[in-house]
Amino acid sequence: MNRTLDKLRRRGPRLAFVATALLVAAGLSAPAALAADDYTQSVTQLSSTQVQLNFIPTTPALYVDVHYTGVPGLGQQNVRMTNSSGTWRTTVGGLSSGNVLDYWFTYEKSGPQYDTPHFSYTVGGGSTAVAAPTFSPPGGTYSSAQTVTISSATAGATIRYTVDGSTPTASSTLYSGPISVPNSRTVNAIALKSGMTTSPVSSASYTIGTQAGCPTQSDTPNFGPNVRIFDPSMSAATIQAQLDTDFTNQKDTLTAQFAERRVAHLFKPGTYGVHDNVGFYTSVAGLGQNPGDVVINGDITVDAFNASDNGVALQNFWRSAENMAVNPSSGNDRWAVAQAAPFRRMDIRGGLQLYPASYGYASGGYIADSKVSGQAASVSQQQWYTRDSALGSWNGGVWNMVFSGTSGAPANTFPNPPETTLATTPVSRDVPYLYVDGTGKYRVFLPSLRTNASGPSWASGSTPGTSAPMSQFYVVKSGDTAASINNALAAGCNLFFTPGIYHLNQTLNVTRANTTILGIGYPTLVPDNGVNAMQVSDVDGVRLKGLLFDAGTTNSQALLTVGQSGSSANHAANPTTVQDVFFRIGGQIAGKATNSLIVNSANTIIDHIWAWRADHGNAGTVGWTVNTADTGLVVNGANVLATGLFVEHYQKYQVIWNGQGGRTIFFQNEMPYDVPNQASWNAPSGVAGYAAYKVASNVTSHEAWGLGSYCFFDTNPAVSSYHAFEVPNTSGVRFHSLLTVSLNYRGTITHVINDTGGVTPSGTVPVNVVNYP
């Protein structure tokens, strides 16, 4: 690449545009486009003197420039195009019939920018594109249902449309007259005419009825058959029998890991003498306002329970413990888990063992807002992250143990021993949680935002925050559909998801600021027919907690999107939080999704997610061409913070960070196991393999601490990745405490970050980089 252009591109879209114009003037160009399927382009003749140039990138672009000649009296023009819902457009005037436009595009894709070939268009002749549809009334917020008219400026064009979030095609519903929009939804449309190029997709999002307020719900709701509610007046034997029955059903790694059963154990305030072994898809939580309101004289335990586990806890996924005090029966509680198993708001009055009784491996976990009076011991855990907590002491560290805002944490000594410690967490907000007030009514507590936090939020007695009655929550249970859930959202309700599996034939639209969506017992959202599962508008204060998105068998473009493309509002005072939200591609079903999570809203807090393209699962649900998925996380918003980021096995970049001012504290990754050969897995830049964590080349401010990426190219150990972390070489982009490992020497990673750090050796030995640059 031209060295001068490379320096300019690192300084953002505006200078990139200047660089493009200078290069074009000098007869130089950016790299050629990767492939035609990177984009579609078209020309729409608007009048006898005007045409519209359209460009739709397959991957959302930060900028698109168009260059053209052929306007009488003008030389070459270089114009920054305008983005409209993913379609970039520019109008060219001053034309006459017979004028020939020569035009080409320069577009950003995941950091680098590329040039397309030249295209030609003759004004008033040849094939033209149909004018894009328009909507009346336009998208927006309305107090009641709307009747929407769709039209195209091209005479004789037909229109096809969808209302479920999917992209319309020539076989979608034919528009024949005004359509009713009774509740919140997005209408997408295309216009077609024989002999002409199909129009770009037009979109209009309608929010209906949010001004009315949520119809009053019950303050003592029926949570359905999968929620067990225990009261201290019940006998210990009765409670224990129910716990044991549920554990028997949820225990086995071979039969329960991808089963459909979901369950929650909720303990009302009081003291209990029980032992709760926690299996798959099980949430255990206290219903007090603070952890000490529910006391367990016994244990809340996860171990390597099954003979098939062979003494390791590498597959102990999808289970949680929250908001209780535990007096362990042996002096130590055991929580030997891997991914997607949060341990929050727990008061352990003794020690906490994060490893199996057999001392076998576990692959990484997460603690937040908790207190352990004794020693927390990781022993055989590969990586671990502890946030805003208090520990008596800590023992252990295999590859990288990360702490922020945690008293009793070890000193920052990475890599020997491999401990990464930050004194505070820059921004955090504890999760919303269900509790019972003094009158027996259910409420949801909404903790306040904290900056430079240290220690549990409840360390002084109670967590600061506000409380919302269950009368403002719609309880989602078996039998609910996407339509009924969207109706509740449109009416102004928050959502409380009970344990279950929910198939969605339309996108769930979260459009109201300060909406809380809280799940217990791993409620699982499955998009059908290729719709995107959930879209959150670019508004303040949305809280998402405790959801599992499981990709459907028809590819979705994204499972969860926060903010619309191009969102730019500042939400620093009241950000959206995505907490204990997990994504799965394959495993239970042969799922497909291009992206799992896209974050467009600024200041979003991503607090403990596991985005997982399954490497194992039910028969027929896993394979390189079966459970397909490009990227786990794409961040386009500015000043986004990730605390506890687990992303694994995606087929291209695991994480793409395009937004300025991003920060990550703790990242755990495994590259895809099943790459068939090197030729099928080379990055667009031409280097071997895709980086696990890519910061776009135009980003000038980004910082990350405590990152690990592992390779295990089991299908073909000859495969390699040039580097695990790909970042711009600029002083504002800084990485600390990062490592790579080749597991059992199945393939190699040549460098840790850019060209720094050696090749992964045999023996499952890490290669460490303390700071970069």
TrEMBL record:
Annotated TM spans: none
Ranges for domain CBM56: 29-123
Pfam families noted in UniProt: CBM_56 (PF22184), CHB_HEX_C_1 (PF13290)
Keywords: Signal
Record flagged with keyword Transmembrane helix: no
Signal peptide: 1-35
Keyword Plastid: no
Name the record gives this protein: Chitobiase/beta-hexosaminidase C-terminal domain-containing protein
